[in-house]
């Protein structure tokens, strides 16, 4: 997918209001229409010499989830031909689907327009359905415990490709997704403007209309982008993958820490929590004898004391080619108790879909290793 600097649709004056978002083009030079907002679709249609009402019709069809222009029944043939020449509609085709026998969690492997693959996981909670979506094909960050990180980076996803994951899961399971978790493959803040546009589209009344309070974004800690995100003040939940209380352990498992060390990261988190009045959720994957010792809990407690935050402890998922092992139940309980001494609330996260490798990056990895790609 080509990201062009020169925009045929968006003029210089309006570029500012798009806050850095640049639409994608496919190999044939066609624009990704499903990532555009209503105003941009109107600009495009006016440039094609079409009346205003056509833009509204086309925007409506796009939001209904059509997968090709031929499905737009009230659009004349000549315009459909023109749209096919100038635009493309992103799709996510189900390449594989696994359903957990334990809890009904569904894991999808989606094939995108250019043949790349991403994963999404649909989980059922008492409050509704939550979908964990991918934001990139692979990831540049190289965390040693992460299947996605180990598979390298291919490209970032467009806003439309993130929306497609939701629409496809909803259609396939005949349900409505009420919560979105940006916690699948990829680092969302390394794809900042596409993710911002995605949030704007998915929360809009014309779109899937998902409340921003029902969106969580998980980051490995790209500090400057945490400050940028705070400026948007979306009201979403920010999850930060901390996984270690100090730079020695964190740098050994998360290379990003060498650039943005723990102190800088926690300072950015404090700023985010104060600015948005939203509690930060720290993710902590418990790895036996790596980061699960009592002294780690004390150090973490001292550093998080007083912050508007919560700690989620997750027994690390086994990933092939690593020696990392899950911490046992006693370790998890001891960790929670120590954190409580510092008035830091912590819970052990329930793992869903444990029989279907529901941790993202694993299904794609298997598919590639088997020669499926
Ligand atoms: N890149 C973002 C979001 C995607 S990763 C981030 O790192 O936050 C989603 C979550 O899964 C992160 O908290 C990540 O640290 C965690 N994770 C990755 N591999 C894991 C594993 N093997 N076991 C448990 N959690 C893992
Ligand atoms: Fe990327 Fe997140 Fe995996 Fe780290 S944990 S490699 S940031 S996807």
TrEMBL record:
Gene Ontology terms describing biological process = rRNA base methylation; tRNA methylation
- GO cellular component terms, A-Z: cytoplasm
Cofactors that this protein relies on: [4Fe-4S] cluster
Compartments (UniProt record) = Cytoplasm
The primary location reported for this protein is: cytoplasm
Q: Which residues bind [4Fe-4S] cluster?
A: 139, 143, 146
Q: Which GO terms describe its molecular function?
A: 4 iron, 4 sulfur cluster binding; metal ion binding; rRNA (adenine(2503)-C2-)-methyltransferase activity; rRNA binding; tRNA (adenine(37)-C2)-methyltransferase activity; tRNA binding
Q: How is the cofactor bound?
A: Binds 1 [4Fe-4S] cluster. The cluster is coordinated with 3 cysteines and an exchangeable S-adenosyl-L-methionine.
**Residues that hold S-adenosyl-L-methionine according to the record:** 186-187, 218, 241-243, 317
EC assignment? 2.1.1.192
The chemistry this enzyme catalyses reads: adenosine(37) in tRNA + 2 reduced [2Fe-2S]-[ferredoxin] + 2 S-adenosyl-L-methionine = 2-methyladenosine(37) in tRNA + 5'-deoxyadenosine + L-methionine + 2 oxidized [2Fe-2S]-[ferredoxin] + S-adenosyl-L-homocysteine; adenosine(2503) in 23S rRNA + 2 reduced [2Fe-2S]-[ferredoxin] + 2 S-adenosyl-L-methionine = 2-methyladenosine(2503) in 23S rRNA + 5'-deoxyadenosine + L-methionine + 2 oxidized [2Fe-2S]-[ferredoxin] + S-adenosyl-L-homocysteine
Q: Pfam families from the entry?
A: Radical_SAM (PF04055), RlmN_N (PF21016)
Q: Where is the active site?
A: 119, 360
| Annotated keywords | 4Fe-4S, Cytoplasm, Disulfide bond, Iron, Iron-sulfur, Metal-binding, Methyltransferase, rRNA processing, S-adenosyl-L-methionine, Transferase, tRNA processing
**Record-annotated Radical SAM core domain positions:** 125-355
Q: Which HAMAP family match?
A: RNA_methyltr_RlmN
The miscellaneous comment for this protein is:
Reaction proceeds by a ping-pong mechanism involving intermediate methylation of a conserved cysteine residue.
Q: What is the purpose of this protein? A: Specifically methylates position 2 of adenine 2503 in 23S rRNA and position 2 of adenine 37 in tRNAs.
Q: Which family does it belong to?
A: Belongs to the radical SAM superfamily. RlmN family.
Output this protein's name. Probable dual-specificity RNA methyltransferase RlmN
Organism, per UniProt?
Candidatus Limousia pullorum
Per UniProt, what is the name of the gene that codes for the protein in this document? rlmN
């Amino acid at each position: 997918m080509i990201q062009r600097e020169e925009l045929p649709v968006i003029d210089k004056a309006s570029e500012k209001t798009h806050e850095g978002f640049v639409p994608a083009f496919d190999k044939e030079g066609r624009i990704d229409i499903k990532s555009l907002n209503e105003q941009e679709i109107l600009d495009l249609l006016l440039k094609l010499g079409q009346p205003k009402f056509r833009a509204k019709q086309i925007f409506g069809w796009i939001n209904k989830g059509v997968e090709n222009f031929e499905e737009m029944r009230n659009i004349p043939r000549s315009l459909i031909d023109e749209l096919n020449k100038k635009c493309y509609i992103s799709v996510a085709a189900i390449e594989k689907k696994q359903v957990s026998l334990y809890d009904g969690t569904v894991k999808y492997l989606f094939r995108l327009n250019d043949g790349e693959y991403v994963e999404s996981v649909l989980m059922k909670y008492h409050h509704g359905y939550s979908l964990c979506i991918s934001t990139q094909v692979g990831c540049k960050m190289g965390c040693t415990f992460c299947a996605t990180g180990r598979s390298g980076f291919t490209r970032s996803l467009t806003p439309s490709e993130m929306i497609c994951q939701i629409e496809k899961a909803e259609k396939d399971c005949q349900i409505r997704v009420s919560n979105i978790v940006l916690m699948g493959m990829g680092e969302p803040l390394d794809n900042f403007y596409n993710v911002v546009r995605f949030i704007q589209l998915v929360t809009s009344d014309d779109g899937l209309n998902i409340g921003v309070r029902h969106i969580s974004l998980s980051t490995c800690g790209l500090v400057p982008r945490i400050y940028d995100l705070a400026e948007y003040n979306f009201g979403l939940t920010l999850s930060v993958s901390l996984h270690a209380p100090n730079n020695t352990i964190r740098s050994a498992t998360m290379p990003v820490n060498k650039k943005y060390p723990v102190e800088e990261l926690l300072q950015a988190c404090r700023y985010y929590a104060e600015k948005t009045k939203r509690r930060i959720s720290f993710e902590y994957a418990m790895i036996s004898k790596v980061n699960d010792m009592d002294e780690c809990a004390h150090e973490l407690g001292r550093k998080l004391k007083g912050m508007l935050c919560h700690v989620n402890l997750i027994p690390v998922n086994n990933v092939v080619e690593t020696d990392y092992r899950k911490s046992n139940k006693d370790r998890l309980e001891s960790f929670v108790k120590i954190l409580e001494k510092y008035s830091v609330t912590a819970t052990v996260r329930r793992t869903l879909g444990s029989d279907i490798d529901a941790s993202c990056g694993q299904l794609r990895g298997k598919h590639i290793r088997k020669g499926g790609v």
